[in-house]
Amino acid sequence: MSDRPANGSANEPSSVDIDAATRRLMTALEALESAVERRREADRDENELASRIQALGADRSRLADELDGSLVKSRRLERVNREIADRLDVAIGTIRSVLHADEDS
Question: What predicted TM-score, i.e. pTM, was given to this entire model?
């Protein structure tokens, strides 16, 4: 005695049902593959963006260091420039006094 019906078709899916289920499965698999590829692409984009942000941060730090160095150098040059200007003023004053002394003699 078998559990199957005598004609064998009452509980068994037909080939049309199997074909339809196969098509739905293939469509679902294609959709899944597309979603996975989109996710991989998004992950690559995120990684690339993170790399760019890291590079920008490194550039910013380097530029900040260079700017600090340039400011120190600029201040030093300004101080030296003032010292030179003061010395020139003293030298010009000395030369004028010598010239006026020669004129008076």
Answer: 0.51
